[in-house]
Sequence to fold (130 residues):
Amino acid sequence: MLHKDYLLEVINQFVDAVSESLGLARKDKDPGQVKEAEQAVANLLDLDAEVALKLAPTSLVQMLVLSGVGDALAEYVVYALREVSKVYEEMGEIQLAELRLAQANQVAASFNVDPLVVPHEFLELYVDKD
Fold:
């Protein structure tokens, strides 16, 4: 039960951080907000974002495995990295977009996650709030 509570707390914190930063990054094309979303992914691995997100896709997967929570968090990581990739592409940062997409796809393949599924916690990002 304690492990499940811990995972739920980690997921909630991750979803909150990524939702806010991705929402602002999409709206404003703000590189700082994209970095915040990347930092949330890196925090799952207890690494600095500059280090974690320079990793080759297979190395990122290894870090998720070593974290011990990769199975529980893979779908969230895949979603966040794919969304960050889209924002980078819109900003013209093609190399970063391609790296984030490759990382997302490798995590998805390694943890058997459908990369096109949006975790339900992120669905509110798609609701028009006008």
User: Anything to note?
Assistant: The CA atoms of residues 80 and 115 lie 10 Å apart. The chain is about 70% helix and 0% strand. The two ends are 40 Å apart (CA to CA). The mean pLDDT is 88.
